[in-house]
Every structure is written in C-alpha cells, then in structure tokens.
Design a protein that fits this description.
This protein has about 120 residues and is α+β, with helices and mostly antiparallel strands. The chain has five helices and four strands, in the order ααβαββαβα.
Amino acid sequence: MKEGNVMELMVENVLNIGEDEFYRASRYKLPLTVILINSIDRKAFDIIDENIRQTDIVQQLSSDLLIVFLAHTDNLKSMKFIDKIKNKLNFSYTCSEFKSSELKFVKKLFLDNFDKNSSY
C-alpha cells in the first residue's frame, strides 16, 4: 500500500475516533487539543492511558503512532500533559488545538507530523 493511501486511512480512522469530540468542540465552542505521538516504546499506550483523564481518548494508530484527544483542553494546558509524560516516555509529537473543519485539521496534523519519523 502506498504511503499516501496509508495516511488517508489513518486520517479517516482519526476522524471516526474523534467524531463525538469534534462535534462537541464545534457545537459548544469547547477547546479540544489533539496530539499525535510517535514512540517505539512498547509501553507507550499504557503510559499515556495512565496519565490521561477519564474524559480523554487515546488510540493506537500503528506500531509507533498514537492519537490523544484532550477534551476541554487548549494548547497551553495540553503542554502540562506533554510535560507529565516526558520523563516516562521517549517520544516526539505534533500537537494542535482544534478550531474548525475536522478533515482539514486532521490532515494538517498528519502532514505536520510527517517529518517526525512516522511509519505512514
């Protein structure tokens, strides 16, 4: 499968995973930050899952890529989450606060993340 096709499938997957969060953020004008995390650490999912709130979402997209939805969280507050896991995990990330147009937002997130050793 070509890289572009894999990225398109991941974009579609992220849109499905975050559908409710994107809706709530748009409808109620709530902040929502989405983070793509690149890590080869096998425990990355567990470490992130242990450090998010019950209302947040973490999903494994590939062997080294995870997506995190931080509901009711702006970019500034999301940095607290990043700082919290920095000492527990070796990773790179791309982080952005959702403003509008789910498809454009997710595609830009993946494109910004493309240079960070991703496997798509």
